[in-house]
Specification:
heterodimer, A: two-stranded parallel sheet, 2 strands, B: six-stranded parallel sheet, six-stranded parallel sheet, 24 helices, globular
Chain lengths: 159, 639
């Protein structure tokens, strides 16, 4: 019984770590990416970042606010971080769609998606039970990496 | 061990016999000698030619009062209750026992806690037994902080207890079990001094913690009881326990060998007055130091000078600096919660954990070395051991570029903070950082700051310098049960009457418990505390976390739980109702003049309130939508 409990705890820990890694994959590349990872992840998961939608002014206020709370950013990074976040997660960007729970109609309407692609996602998740990460999704859709990049930042893999 | 100590103190055992018995019980020779030394000190303080006890005849209440005097108690933090009266009767003719009345039991405990922390003494509080539920949140805080408190209540008559009768439970001690280190129901008036002395001894012996005594009414009202009062110095046990030399050598060697060490500091450092010793150790090898708490948080105290170039702020499990930490030396604090995911200190890191609280050494981490000893002694012994193992040249080599790298890191982080603050310097509503910076600037250099904030707190607190000769921080408690701060600030001011005391309080926390009623006590006894409410009309932390989860509240912009506006509370009027003057501050230029008026009030012996409107920040901060509901509108009869 004790070993079973230990196994469950270890699996839970590994699962939490995997989920964090998946959120990191949803942070696009670009100038400021490294500073965001270095400054933000001491206190919270990147989930908070990639789910956020803000105007440039709101992102500027958020970055300044987080620095006051203890985010270890450097002076010459503030501008780049703010610009990176404003570009990657603007107020106008659609919310991330959970690829594992979205309805087929919802998937079809997303930019770059079509009924065929939506059907593949539904088939993939009903077959595997869960689409765990972007690579699982790319394979299910049969897309090349460059093509998949265009829709990568539409989806999340858990809530 | 208890039997051995008793035997030694009663001279049934020689010092040698005591040490040998301790060693046979599993203690190291160094630890046994250290305890023997401490006990000898206690005996010496008692005075070899002085009696250990003094005979006294009186009521139970008088016996308690006499024992409290012998314990050095000056203040009785009381809340109303018939059963407290026998002690008050005794206090009438003992003006050295000064009564501080609070109008809620939770406040009594918070005041006693603040006093104990500020004065460095064991505090006494008493209230009615039915006040235990009211007191419990701050008893929990006190237990988590290991505060030296003796908490007492009255109790039903001895022959009537245990019947679930009027204001009674089957087992009234059970509810306080988790919040106290030791607890007892007094069932013989003649033993009131003995148990009271024991409660003080256990509460004050490091690591400390609240103890609890319950006084049945017939015990307190008994008359003509002859008993022995334990004399001062006969029931305190200074604990400067040293670690054994082999462990010190092992730890010193590991510190010398480490390529990237890190020191975590906890409140035992502050309590043991070990900050200079820890600074010397950190400087010797240029080891970066963190507060031990995540982010910039503080729980009980500030344990390393915040303006020191080696101080890098809160513990960061994914640190930007130092990278690749291979050794953590945790001094006098709980190790970071291992959490449910990856442990906050990676398994590959050597952990050396030093606590006087032996049962908590290591928490749930595998240790390279565990040390149950006084943190000051250990820091001093480590310095001596490192010096004896290395040459000055080698030390210089170890320090190498680490000091300069750390200095550069802390300087750049502080510059970024200043730059970010400048961008919002004149914001309205106020930013937390501007409010903190201005309070810091106009307050006394050696003021005591008593905060009770959530995740917004670091923005204000990092504006202050907490160090020797600078400001002192007490709070927000490691238990973090809200409803502690303003009451605690009252106790801090009583413990440090010659220091400026500023309670800094989030509005959400202020509304918890009975905090506004602390103004009554301030007003009655002329306790000039300045209370600044950081008022964002919100529980910012809970809203921020809920909205970051991107659930239905975030998706619909609905704040079900955290928005505190509508109605907007008028704290100035609230304070005025208790006779405390104050004002509201809405723009940055109003902060300093308001603080100066608060200082003027303090000069006149009066408390003051500043209700400062600060902004909400982060996820969902602009949301004030909540589900409207009118019970009145749904009535069938408008009565």
């Amino acid at each position: 019984m004790r070993y079973l409990l230990l196994l469950v705890l270890l699996l839970a820990a590994a699962d939490a770590q995997r989920r964090d890694e998946v959120w990191a994959e949803l942070l696009p590349p670009g100038n400021g990416h490294g500073a965001v990872v270095a400054s933000c992840t001491g206190c919270h998961s990147l989930k908070v970042v990639v789910n956020a939608r803000r105007t440039p002014a709101e992102w500027a206020a958020t970055v300044d606010d987080m620095i006051q709370r203890g985010a270890p950013a450097f002076p010459d990074e503030i501008e780049a971080m703010t610009a990176f976040l404003a570009k990657s997660f603007p107020a106008t960007a659609p919310r991330l769609v959970n690829v594992n729970t979205a309805r087929r109609e919802e998937l079809e309407k997303l930019p770059g998606m079509n009924p065929e692609a939506a059907a593949r996602i539904v088939a993939a998740r009903s077959q595997a039970g869960i689409v765990r990460n972007p690579e699982d999704l790319r394979r299910a859709l049969g897309m090349e990496k460059a093509e998949f990049e265009k829709i990568l930042y539409l989806f999340k893999y858990s809530d | 061990m208890r039997e051995l100590v008793r035997g030694y103190l009663q001279r049934a055992l020689s010092r040698r016999g005591f040490v040998e018995s301790m060693v046979r019980s599993g203690f190291s020779l160094a630890a046994a000698q250290s305890v023997a030394g401490a006990l000898a000190f206690a005996q010496q303080r008692a005075g070899a030619d002085q009696p250990f006890t003094r005979t006294f005849r009186g009521t139970g209440g008088e016996l308690l009062a006499e024992q409290l005097r012998a314990a050095g108690v000056e203040y009785l933090f009381l809340s109303n209750g018939t059963g407290v009266s026998p002690l008050c009767d005794a206090a009438v003719d003992r003006p050295d026992l000064k009564v501080i009345l609070a109008v809620h039991e939770g406040l009594s405990v918070a005041m006693a806690d603040g006093y104990s922390k500020a004065a460095g003494k064991t505090a006494f509080t008493m209230f009615s037994r039915v006040g235990i539920p009211n007191a419990s949140s701050n008893m929990y805080n006190a237990m988590k902080d290991r505060s030296s408190l003796v908490i007492a209540t009255d109790h039903i008559e001895s022959l009537a207890s245990g019947r679930d009768a009027h204001e009674d439970l089957d087992d009234t001690l059970e509810p306080v079990k988790e919040y106290t280190k030791w607890r007892w129901n007094i069932d013989a008036a003649v033993r009131i001094p003995e148990w009271t002395a024991k409660a003080f001894k256990l509460a004050s012996t490091p690591p400390g913690g609240p103890t609890f005594l319950m006084f049945p009414r017939d015990m307190m009202t008994a008359r003509g009881v002859q008993s022995e009062i334990y004399q001062p110095g006969t029931f305190d046990v200074p604990m400067s326990v040293r670690a054994d030399a082999a462990t010190i050598d092992k730890a010193a060697r590991a510190l010398i060998e480490s390529k990237s060490p890190l020191i975590l500091t906890g409140s035992e450092v502050w309590r043991a007055k070990a900050i200079p010793a820890v600074v010397e150790l950190a400087e010797l090898l240029a080891i970066p130091v963190t507060s031990g708490e995540q982010r910039e948080g503080y729980r009980v105290s500030c344990n390393f000078p915040t303006n020191h170039p080696l101080f890098i702020g809160g513990y960061n499990p994914r640190p930007r600096y130092p990278r690749n930490v291979d050794l953590v030396l945790s001094l006098g604090g709980k190790l970071p919660d291992p959490g449910s995911g990856e442990p906050l200190i990676p398994r590959s890191v050597r952990i050396i954990d030093v606590r006087i609280e032996a049962s908590d050494v290591g928490t749930d981490y595998p240790l390279y070395a565990g040390v149950a000893a006084d943190v000051k002694q250990v820091a001093q012994d480590l310095v001596a051991a490192i010096k004896s193992m290395t040459t000055a040249e080698r030390l210089k080599q170890i320090r190498g570029e680490r000091l300069e790298q750390t200095r550069q890191y802390t300087t750049r982080v502080r510059e970024a903070r200043a730059q970010a603050m400048k961008a919002h310097w004149n914001d309205k509503p106020l930013t937390w950082e501007r409010l903190g910076a201005d309070i810091n600037e106009v307050s006394e250099r050696d003021a005591y700051i008593v905060p009770e904030f959530g995740t917004e707190g670091p923005k204000a607190l990092t504006q202050f310098t907490f160090a020797e000769g600078e400001k002192t921080l007490i709070g927000r408690t490691s238990g973090a049960a809200l409803g502690w701060g303003v009451g605690a600030a009252v106790g801090v001011k009583i413990g440090q009457p010659d220091k400026q005391v500023i309670a800094m309080q989030g509005d959400g926390g202020f509304l918890f418990g009975s905090q506004p009623m602390a103004f009554w006590t301030m007003s009655r006894y002329q306790i000039p505390v300045t209370t600044v409410i950081f008022n964002n009309r919100c529980y910012n932390e809970t809203r921020e976390r809920a909205f970051a989860e991107d659930g239905r509240q975030a998706q619909t912009g609905t704040d079900m739980l955290s928005y505190l506006g509508d109605p907007d509370i008028d704290y100035v009027k609230l304070a005025a109702a208790f006779g405390v003057p104050g004002e509201q501050v809405t723009t940055p230029d109003q902060i300093k003049p308001a603080m100066k008026r608060a200082a003027k009030a303090a000069l006149d012996g009066k408390p003051y309130l500043i209700d400062a409107l600060v902004g909400r920040t982060s996820s969902g901060s602009v949301k004030t939508l909540y589900p409207k509901l009118s019970i009145a509108a749904g009535r069938k009869r408008n009565v």
